[in-house]
């Protein structure tokens, strides 16, 4: 096996990412995995769907990240009476001038927190479709582009379901990952309480939005070996046709599998994760580590599976265990190192 620590270009990138994470962790305690997924999403130009009970620092994390990159942060509290114009903006008539002017909505920001997104009806949730995919909004036939970088982090509460609406499948599929976050440990909660009693920490900007845009460009240059990309394709395809890949016993548990967006998300997410760890090439472990977050919201269980209390994550585990992994030959590793 060839030892390789990353190219000269990837090492400064990893240092900058460490500086950003360090600055965030001066404010946010714990939630290391959640923080890492937020950084993966923003490097890969994706969006996050976060599921967790209130009070787990979701808003604080995104707001602090905006401060570290000197970016703009906005929060929208989704409610049943919200209308699409409250998100994207609308045309206003000025009686004095007799002309219409465009008032842009809160989606025109760098980091957008859509809090409790499932509390708004489908027509409001669908207002985010264009801006999440195309990075633009169309108002009265006129197109307006949002700022770069742009990240939507949507939250939903897993326990309080009264007065909520199921997210449309088209909306769910546009989220790169769905991250589950839990309660902090006892030690972490002690530090949280200790910091709450102390004076607030002033967040320092350690990067700019221009630097972050450059990091996104560098992320696209991270090398993905064709054998690893083929593995990602097979993993996603196995959620649609398990029998073809020797997983016939899972066919009855899956009503609908993941779309090709999942394959793209796996590859792009693995590029970002590799870059954060100081490598300019992707390893099999990068893809496997992101598999649950990328696939869990894209797989629909059958009624039989739900009746048997089966979990999506356990099905993903079975697919990864039983699907043959690509061979890690010295030739492939050498290609990665030379390309990097």
UniProtKB/TrEMBL annotation:
PANTHER family, A to Z: MAGNESIUM-CHELATASE SUBUNIT CHLD (PTHR42759:SF1), MOXR FAMILY PROTEIN (PTHR42759)
Organism whose genome encodes this protein: Diaphorobacter aerolatus
Domain of life: Bacteria
Keyword field contains Transferase: no
GO MF, one annotated term: ATP binding
Key word Nucleotide-binding present: yes
Pfam families, per the entry: AAA_3 (PF07726), AAA_lid_2 (PF17863)
Xref: InterPro entries: ATPase_AAA-3 (IPR011703), CbbQ/NirQ/NorQ/GpvN (IPR050764), ChlI/MoxR_AAA_lid (IPR041628), P-loop_NTPase (IPR027417)
The protein's name: AAA family ATPase
Domain (ATPase AAA-3): residue spans on this chain: 47-177
Family: Belongs to the MoxR family.
Coiled-coil boundaries: none
Ranges of residues in domain ChlI/MoxR AAA lid: 253-319
């Amino acid at each position: 096996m060839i030892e390789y620590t990353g190219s000269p270009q990837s090492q400064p990138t990893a240092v900058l990412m460490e500086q950003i994470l360090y600055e965030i962790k001066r404010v946010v305690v714990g939630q290391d995995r959640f923080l890492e997924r937020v950084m993966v999403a923003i490097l890969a130009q994706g969006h996050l769907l976060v599921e967790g009970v209130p009070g787990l620092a979701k808003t604080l994390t995104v707001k602090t990240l905006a401060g570290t990159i000197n970016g703009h942060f906005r929060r929208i509290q989704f409610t049943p009476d919200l209308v699409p114009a409250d998100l994207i903006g609308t045309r206003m008539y000025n009686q004095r001038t007799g002309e219409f002017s465009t008032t842009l909505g809160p989606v025109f920001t760098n980091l957008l927190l859509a809090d409790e997104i499932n509390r708004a009806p489908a027509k409001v949730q669908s207002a985010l479709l264009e801006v999440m995919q195309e990075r633009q909004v169309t108002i009265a036939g006129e197109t307006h582009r949002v700022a770069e970088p742009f990240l939507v982090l949507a939250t939903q509460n897993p326990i309080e379901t009264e007065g909520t609406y199921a997210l449309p499948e088209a909306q769910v599929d546009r989220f790169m990952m769905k991250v589950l976050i839990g309660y902090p440990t006892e030690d972490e909660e002690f530090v949280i309480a200790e910091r709450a009693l102390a004076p607030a920490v002033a967040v320092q900007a350690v990067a700019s939005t221009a630097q972050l845009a450059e990091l996104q460009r560098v992320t696209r240059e991270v090398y993905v070996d064709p054998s690893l990309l083929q593995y990602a394709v097979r993993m996603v395809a196995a959620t649609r046709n398990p029998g073809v890949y020797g997983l016939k016993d899972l066919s009855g548990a899956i009503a609908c599998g993941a779309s090709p967006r999942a394959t793209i998300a796996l590859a792009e997410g693995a590029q970002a994760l590799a870059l954060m760890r100081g490598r300019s090439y992707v390893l099999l472990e990068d893809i496997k580590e992101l598999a649950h977050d990328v696939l869990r919201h894209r797989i629909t269980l059958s009624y039989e599976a739900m009746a048997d209390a089966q979990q999506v994550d356990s099905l993903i585990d079975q697919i990864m265990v039983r699907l043959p992994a690509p061979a890690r030959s010295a030739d492939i590793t050498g290609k990665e190192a030379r390309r990097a």
